[in-house]
Amino acid sequence: MHEHDVVREMALWIASYFGKQKETFIVQARVGLLKIPKVKDWGAVRRMSLKNNDIEEITCGSKCSELTTFFLQENQLKNLSGEFIQSMQKLAVLDLSGNENFSELPEQISKLASLQYLDLSFTSIELLPVGFQELKKLAHLNLASTERLCSISGISKLSSLKILKLRNSKVHIDASLVKELQLLEHLQVLTIMITDLAWELLLGDERLANCINLSVNSRVPTKAV
């Protein structure tokens, strides 16, 4: 499944419920929020969008046991409480992109057993916690423009991964990483910056080469694969 297919499916999914389950939505985008809004009954909330605000931290202990979709992109986020993360047992979609000061995922991210879509692009994430490997249902992982992220060791444990975006991250494509990528049996799309060495390593695996969406960072043949 390609990126536009994922976006389209998400849009249709949201549209199909809007109006039918209006009480389960919270949408407060671009309203200048400095903190997460007060909610009378968190247990009734299924989907929430707080994108394009000025929220710096979420430390509340609210139990969001029914939340499946959380859009928090383009805020000023620095701290995301592990307790808050752990309460979202049904979360399938989490978008934290564009939070340029967000540098650390809580270890409790490993508790999100239902997570399928995670966007950390344009954040300052420096490493992925060990528990990240427990996200067995994760299908779409966006790490593009994570300029402080140097390693994604253990990525092969994400057995459901279909889309992996690494373009403009600091992750170095070497032999050990290629071996891990080869273990991702469901991988369909891989976006990367590529060097001469990485080009040679990746072309050694036909299936992996067919997944690649290239950004050339060296004098290598350009090819739309």
From TrEMBL:
Keyword Repeat found: yes
Organism encoding this protein: Arabidopsis thaliana x Arabidopsis arenosa
One protein family per Pfam = LRR_14
- Domain of life per record: Eukaryota
- Name the UniProt record assigns to this protein: Leucine-rich repeat
The residues covered by the Disease resistance R13L4/SHOC-2-like LRR domain are 46-196
* Keyword annotations from UniProtKB, A to Z: Repeat
Name the InterPro entries for this protein: LRR_R13L4/SHOC2-like (IPR055414)
